[in-house]
């Protein structure tokens, strides 16, 4: 028998019959129990698939690998061997039953462990692909299959480079056909399963809607997109939407698709992941606009649709310049009334629900506080905001805060609002949606500062209060520059680095947006004496305070030379 590992021309070459066998076994198995001798796949490209049923990423990747394997089955030049990481026979059998390839018997744990060590497997799924001679083609087989599927065969660097160049050429010569048509499919589908030829969409403006059917962000956006889609279609515009589903569960996708009026690629179509890579998808939902000539007009118009609706059509660069000018004019004309007064409401509420006319707030500095009781960071920030509010208004009331709730019910709103000394929009008020859209609120807590004229001063007033407390008032750029200049003088007297307490590593004065001080356990921001290796922070005041040094020492940090650990 040849040695397990031969060295040929300086490259590792593996004898598969040696590394996959054991002294008591000269065969592999299929999921029906058949034993297969090693000679049956000699001279084939072989994938060693390290996987386990308990691993979520493995469960998601295995169907993609099955699809590629089945597409290559006719050539009879590709084989896969499953090396299980399952914990018992039952789990192995259930998982292996879904696989059309070979496996090392679960009972041969020694060989499985040896292979894990031999190929340096540190995480799963892991796919090593070897050529006909047993030489490694790639240890990144999972990525190769996800990105290329069976088109990657024979998985050589030359083939992968060829596919990359083809993709580049496809971008240069992009058309609706090159985006949506594959060798086995030249159509998209309706919610009732009818096939619509892609050729029928050519010459139209098409939105490619990347979506996860059950994702709340997509569910929320669907209603707005349906409104725009229906309005454009009823107006006779040559516009279509093709959904690019990223779901894996066909049943749940089908339930959502039934509610939608547009077209879709079939679920689990390999074109979906190709388009994700092609357009470098970075967020959901995303709507890519393809113009009538098949070229990309816009990489994502979700925000434009949310803010402008059908006015954003036909999504051309000229239309977007026009919208920007309109928005700029609206921001320059912004007043408190334009933000907070509509046909239904011209007031906010105070304690016990007392109505306060918006006009009473004219001339004041205003903070719009987007928050909710269920949000832990919101609850953590509330005492800091309350303290700053009270300090700013200590002598006369110059600042008002308006709470804009994302709570889930009236009681939660009332309980949370009872902890606040300021005003609020009523729970469920429609103005919340328009304000969130106008200020592009994509997370809470968010704190927006408005000046006495109602114009926006800062959309990051939370960060300013976290950094400077009441001193940040009135949150203008000029005020923050004043604070930073004063701070620079203080910094000049601080050591650029120091050692403190029992922490073994040197601490460096570092600009940090937000942190928790390991000396006093309180929040900090802007400047910290920081150890990057250990993610260890000290407020400057704690670094210079002997009592805080003692507290730091009492926490018993242990250093092993490379990293410190808190016992």
TrEMBL record:
A GO molecular-function annotation: thioredoxin-disulfide reductase (NADPH) activity
Xref: Pfam families: C1_2 (PF03107), Thioredoxin_8 (PF13905)
InterPro entries found in the cross-reference section: C1-like_sf, DC1, Nucleoredoxin-like, Thioredoxin-like_fold, Thioredoxin-like_sf, Thioredoxin_domain, TryX_NRX_thioredoxin_dom
Occurrences of domain Thioredoxin (ranges): 16-165, 330-492
Alphabetic keyword roster: NAD, Oxidoreductase, Repeat
Keyword Cytoplasm: no
UniProt keyword NAD, yes or no: yes
EC number: 1.8.1.8
Catalyzed reactions per annotation: [protein]-dithiol + NAD(+) = [protein]-disulfide + NADH + H(+); [protein]-dithiol + NADP(+) = [protein]-disulfide + NADPH + H(+)
Family: Belongs to the nucleoredoxin family.
Protein name: protein-disulfide reductase
Taxonomic source organism: Erythranthe guttata (Yellow monkey flower)
């Amino acid at each position: 028998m040849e040695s397990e590992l031969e060295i040929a021309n300086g490259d590792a070459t593996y004898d598969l019959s040696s590394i996959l066998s054991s002294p008591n076994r000269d065969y592999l198995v299929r999921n029906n129990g058949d034993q297969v001798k090693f000679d049956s796949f000699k001279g084939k490209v072989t994938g060693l698939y390290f996987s386990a049923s308990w691993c979520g990423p493995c469960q998601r990747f295995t169907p993609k690998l099955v699809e590629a394997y089945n597409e290559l089955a006719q050539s009879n030049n590709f084989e896969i061997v499953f090396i299980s990481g399952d914990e018992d026979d039952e789990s192995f059998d259930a998982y292996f039953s879904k696989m059309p390839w070979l496996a090392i018997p679960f009972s041969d744990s020694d060989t499985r462990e040896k292979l894990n060590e031999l190929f340096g497997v540190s995480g799963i799924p892991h796919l090593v692909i070897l050529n006909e001679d047993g030489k490694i083609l790639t240890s990144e087989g999972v990525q190769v299959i996800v990105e290329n599927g069976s088109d990657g065969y024979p998985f050589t660097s030359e083939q992968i480079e060829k596919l990359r160049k083809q993709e580049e050429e496809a971008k240069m010569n992009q058309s609706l056909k090159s985006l949506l048509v594959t060798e086995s499919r030249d159509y998209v589908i309706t919610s009732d399963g009818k096939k619509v030829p892609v050729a029928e969409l050519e010459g139209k403006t098409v939105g490619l809607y990347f979506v996860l059917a059950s994702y709340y962000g997509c569910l929320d956006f669907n209603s707005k997109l349906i409104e725009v889609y229906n309005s454009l279609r009823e107006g006779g515009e040559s516009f279509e939407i093709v959904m690019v589903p990223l779901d894996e569960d066909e049943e749940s996708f089908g339930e959502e698709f039934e509610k939608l009026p547009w077209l879709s690629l079939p679920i689990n179509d390999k074109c979906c992941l190709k388009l994700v890579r092609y357009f470098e998808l970075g967020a959901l939902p995303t709507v890519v606009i393809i113009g009538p000539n098949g070229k990309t007009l816009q990489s994502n118009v979700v925000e434009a649709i949310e803010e402008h609706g059908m006015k954003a059509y036909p999504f051309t660069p000229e239309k977007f310049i026009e919208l920007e000018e309109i928005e700029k004019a609206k921001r320059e004309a912004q007043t408190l009334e334009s933000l907070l007064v509509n046909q239904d409401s011209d007031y906010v509420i105070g304690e016990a629900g007392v109505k306060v006319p918006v006009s009473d707030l004219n001339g004041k500095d205003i903070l719009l506080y987007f928050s909710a009781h269920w949000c832990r960071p919101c609850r953590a920030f509330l005492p800091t905001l309350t303290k700053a509010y009270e300090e700013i208004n200590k002598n006369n009331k110059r600042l008002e805060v308006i709470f804009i709730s994302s709570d889930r019910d009236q009681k939660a709103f009332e309980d949370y609002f009872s902890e606040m000394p300021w005003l609020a929009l009523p729970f469920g008020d429609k103005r919340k949606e328009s304000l969130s859209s106008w200020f592009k609120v994509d997370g809470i807590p968010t704190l927006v500062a408005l000046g006495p004229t109602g114009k926006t001063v800062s959309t990051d007033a939370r960060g300013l209060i976290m950094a400077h407390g009441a001193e940040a008032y009135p949150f203008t750029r000029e005020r923050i520059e004043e604070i930073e200049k004063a701070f620079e003088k203080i910094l000049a007297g601080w050591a650029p680095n120091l050692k403190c307490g029992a922490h073994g590593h040197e601490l460096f004065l570092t600009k940090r947006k937000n942190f928790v001080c390991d000396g006093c356990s309180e929040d900090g921001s802007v400047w910290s004496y920081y150890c990057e290796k250990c993610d260890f922070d000290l407020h400057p005041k704690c670094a210079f305070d002997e009592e805080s040094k003692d507290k730091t020492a009492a926490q018993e940090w242990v250093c092993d030379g490379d990293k410190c650990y808190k016992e």
